[in-house]
Design goal:
The chain is α/β, with parallel strands linked by helices. It is built from 11 helices and 10 strands. The chain is globular, with a radius of gyration of 18 Å.
Length: about 300
């Protein structure tokens, strides 16, 4: 059984899309199992349908308004760099409405429903492929994996949305009596789950460099402090997921093909820049091509 695993990474998901496009269209890889966390969960349904051009068009055209119904921060470009700060009015308005987070991401939910049609959902559900999205159950302190075969169209689209909700900047969702948030808080790279479900070969796309190339700049405000703290936490979770995945793979003779980003794409994956994301998609495609051509040259 072959599995495709895509990690979380916000706007960097465009790079993962390019890698996956090459693996599917040029390498001809066929997958039985698709697992995604956060931004990865947005990609996997369309990849399972072989509709890479459709999801590419979506990924390379989104902006902040496509994601946020209430944006909690302001983005200002200075000396070629994007600087973020709190949008005090939006945050205050959210709290006055009784919300528990700084911002809301209802627009992303609408985008998912508009992008994944009910006909496509039924086609996937009728297939032998399994599509799973990772969510964090905050109430029960557990990571959960939601399979397309267990839910209705609207429910599964909502689980995809929940998997992407990077609280406290995006929506905190109450469902089935529990509070849910971004799957990356519990499992950034669900390699172990793929192995548990019978995968014998895994293509794992990691939206992070294999080696840390930079030190974070000092926090300029409370917003950048929170994002730096969350990034530190998620980096540690990601590296732990990879270590556990490698350990499980070694014990069960599972092959893992890793695709890390070769360079640092961005230091804030909550910024959705159409021009950059289009470039990242193309660089992901080129990187997968280069890596596989290099491997073919090494093999006798």
């Amino acid at each position: 059984m072959r599995a495709l695993v895509i990690s979380g990474g916000g706007s960097k998901g465009a790079f993962a899309g390019g890698v996956a496009q090459y693996l599917i269209e040029k390498m001809g890889n066929q997958y039985d199992l698709y697992l995604g966390t956060s931004t990865g969960s947005l990609l996997i349904s369309h990849l399972a349908l072989n509709k890479t051009q459709k999801i590419k068009k979506v990924y390379t055209s989104v902006d902040q308004n496509s994601i946020f119904s209430n944006t909690p921060f302001l983005i200002k470009r200075k000396h070629g760099q994007d600087n973020i700060s709190i949008n005090h009015f939006s945050v205050l308005w959210n709290f006055l409405k009784g919300k528990k987070t700084f911002g809301e991401s209802e627009n992303l939910k609408k985008l998912i429903l508009n992008t994944v049609t009910e006909e496509e959902f039924e086609e996937l559900k009728a297939s032998k492929k399994d599509i799973l999205v990772t969510v964090s159950n905050i109430s029960l302190n557990e990571v959960e994996y939601k399979s397309i075969h267990d839910y209705s169209y609207e429910d599964f689209c909502e689980w995809i949305w929940i998997s992407c909700n990077y609280v406290p900047f995006m929506s905190l969702v109450q469902k089935n009596g529990c509070e849910y948030a971004d799957g990356g808080f519990g499992s950034m790279v669900p390699i172990e789950e793929a192995i548990k479900r019978g995968a014998t070969e895994i293509d794992a796309i990691i939206l992070q460099t294999e080696v840390t190339y930079f030190n974070r700049l000092p926090s300029k405000n409370v917003f950048s402090l929170i994002t730096n703290l969350f990034r530190f936490m998620l980096d540690r979770i990601e590296r732990q997921n990879i270590r556990i995945g490698k350990f499980e793979a070694t014990n069960k003779d599972v092959i893992i093909n890793f695709y890390y980003t070769p360079t640092v794409l961005t230091t804030n994956s909550l910024i959705f820049d159409k021009v950059k994301m289009e470039r990242w998609w193309e660089s992901g495609f080129s990187f997968a091509k280069y890596k596989n051509e290099e491997l073919n040259q090494i093999e006798p």
